[in-house]
Design brief:
Shape: globular
CATH superfamily: Vaccinia Virus protein VP39
Number of helices: 4
Structural class: alpha/beta
Number of strands: 9
Largest sheet: 7 strands, mixed
Helix content: 25-40%
């Protein structure tokens, strides 16, 4: 998700110069992600290093923004009936690419059993587990809901969508917050055209709703959409895995 425009941030105290990420975006080689343009990383290791670098260098800016984003997610899901904010109590929610966990805390305040996952959640983060959202260490049909605002940070978005759909219970909801703007310094793919991502979601899940959103914090300001997709099958909401 793009941060406000301006010069690249300087290194945090004790860190060397920030590695310059590839600036070119090229079509992915993954057969499952047609039409997606990805940053021209040398390999998966360079991708992981670049994504982990963000929190290490920008934590002083991300921390206050994370608190502000918690309030945005809380108000958004509490106030929109189509997202079932009033019925989240007792539901299990997995937040992918959750960084410091603002969205996780918001869902907890709404009564959910929520947990986040990120490749760099920082030290002693009680809300977010360390892990790769391309390869989830959870069993099938385990969560009532999956939420992510970080598909633009995926190496292979089709793999992330497959994994999110896999851990959803039948009848479960996949909430996808998708940025409509050109990528910034840390985005891995270009989602300014949402069509390829939506095609992947629609091939795996049933579309259930959409609202336009704008996220404004002290660190970021971007517009896009919040899409909801449903895994087909009988609902088993409220029963933890």
């Amino acid at each position: 998700m793009p941060a406000p425009s301006g010069p690249p941030p300087g290194p945090a105290p004790g860190l060397g110069p920030s590695p310059a990420p590839p600036t070119e975006f090229v079509p992915t080689e993954s057969a499952g992600s047609p039409g997606v343009r990805r940053r021209a990383y040398r390999d998966y290791e360079q991708y992981l290093a670049h994504q982990a670098d963000k929190l290490r260098r920008l934590r002083d800016r991300i921390e206050p923004s994370d608190l502000e984003y918690e309030e945005i997610v809380f108000e958004r899901f509490h106030g929109l009936a189509e997202f079932g904010g009033d019925s989240l109590r007792g539901h299990s929610v997995l937040c992918l690419g959750a960084r410091l966990g603002g969205e996780v805390r918001a869902f907890k305040r709404l009564g959910a059993l929520a947990v986040g996952l990120d490749i760099e959640p920082g030290e002693k983060n009680p809300h977010v587990l360390h892990g790769d959202f391309h390869d989830l260490a959870f069993p099938d049909a385990c969560f009532d809901r999956v939420f992510t605002n970080a598909i633009d940070h995926a190496w292979d978005p089709a793999r992330v969508i497959d994994e999110g759909a896999r851990v959803l219970k039948p009848g479960g909801l996949f909430h996808l917050e998708l940025c409509a703007e050109r990528p910034g310094r840390y985005e891995a793919i270009d989602t300014s055209d949402p069509a390829p991502i939506l095609a992947m979601m629609g091939a795996r899940l049933s579309r259930a709703g959409m609202v336009e959103v704008r996220n404004v914090t002290s660190y970021l300001d971007w517009s896009g959409w919040l899409y909801t997709f449903r895994r087909l099958g009988a609902s088993s909401a409220g029963h933890a895995c």
